[in-house]
UniProtKB/TrEMBL annotation:
Cofactor comment: Binds 1 Mg(2+) ion per subunit.
UniProt entry keywords in alphabetical sequence: Magnesium, Metal-binding, Thiamine biosynthesis, Transferase
Chain ranges of the Thiamine phosphate synthase/TenI domain: 13-193
Domain of life, per lineage: Bacteria
Name of the molecule in the record: Thiamine-phosphate synthase
GO biological process assignments: thiamine biosynthetic process; thiamine diphosphate biosynthetic process
Binding site for Mg(2+): D75, D94
The EC number(s) this enzyme carries: 2.5.1.3
Family per similarity comment: Belongs to the thiamine-phosphate synthase family.
Signal peptide from the UniProt entry: none
InterPro entries cross-referenced by the UniProt entry: Aldolase_TIM (IPR013785), ThiamineP_synth_sf (IPR036206), ThiamineP_synth_TenI (IPR022998), TMP_synthase (IPR034291)
Single GO MF descriptor: thiamine-phosphate diphosphorylase activity
GO cellular component, one term: cytoplasm
Length: 221
């Protein structure tokens, strides 16, 4: 997939998280988000056994194909390959990106987290297909995320590099537009979607807001 196509498909990335799902199972949450227009489902379950993760991954693989959405597996590059996901996402404490790339091969998508310019430069050098940049705002979704960094890193990176940027951390329909205008290709959320009363409606609202921001004249060139 070329960069422009990938950037388009990264518009709205929903991370599963059973701790925030209010008793709803991962497949139910993902289906509702896909119905609302999520373009990526990231399987992120810090509690699951490997066997459970594989089962969830296989179910999400089928579902994401039916909705023409991407499936990314968080942390577990081996599981990403085993369930034939589109890719994997690794952070700064996870498998190093060059090893993840070896396992994923050249075709699958490799996402890497970056919270600083140095981390971003390293991830780009290591061949990340997209960067997960955050935490942009204060977040409830990741306890060890560190302090909010705001939009500056997004605008700096967008001005200098073509690698698509996915903003994460405290994103909502209210604050997403300014981050898209700063140059993010898309946003990633946990609580704004998976903890919502109506997951489909929350996803739809986010998607509409992001699409409008992408088309606004103030959008990043
Ligand atoms: C799109 C996206 N961006 C950042 C992250 C965070 O990854 P990481 O730092 O490894 O933290 P955990 O998600 O593993 O807790 C992400 N998952 N997705
Ligand atoms: C999983 C994750 N990674 C982050 C990072 O900054 O890398 S912030 C985060 C949690 C995002 O949850 P919410 O959308 O509810 O704020
Ligand atoms: Mg991780």
């Amino acid at each position: 997939m070329n960069r422009a196509a990938l950037a388009h498909r990264l518009t709205l990335h929903v991370l599963t998280d059973r701790e925030w799902s209010r008793g709803r199972d991962t497949v139910t949450v993902a289906r509702a988000a896909l119905e609302g227009g999520a373009t990526v489902i990231q399987l992120r379950d810090k509690l699951a056994s490997t066997r459970e993760l594989i089962e969830q991954g296989q179910a999400l693989r089928e579902l994401t194909r039916a909705y023409n959405a991407l499936l990314i597996v968080n942390d577990r590059v081996d599981v990403a390959v085993a369930v034939d996901a589109d890719g994997a996402h690794v952070g700064q404490d996870d498998m190093p990106a060059p090893l993840a790339r070896q396992i994923l091969g050249p075709q699958r998508i490799l996402g890497v987290s970056a919270g600083t310019l140095d981390e971003a430069l390293g991830a780009i050098k290591d061949g990340a297909d997209y960067l997960g940049v955050g935490p942009i705002f204060a977040t409830r979704g990741k306890l060890d995320a560190g302090p909010a960094i705001g939009a500056k890193l997004i605008s700096t990176l967008a001005a200098r590099f073509p690698t698509p940027l996915v903003a994460i951390g405290g994103l909502t329909a209210t604050n997403a537009p300014e981050i898209i205008r700063a140059g993010a290709a898309g946003i990633a959320v946990i609580t704004a979607v998976v903890a919502a009363d109506d997951i489909t409606a929350a996803t739809r609202e986010l998607l509409t807001t992001i699409q409008a921001a992408k088309q606004s004249p103030q959008a990043h060139p």
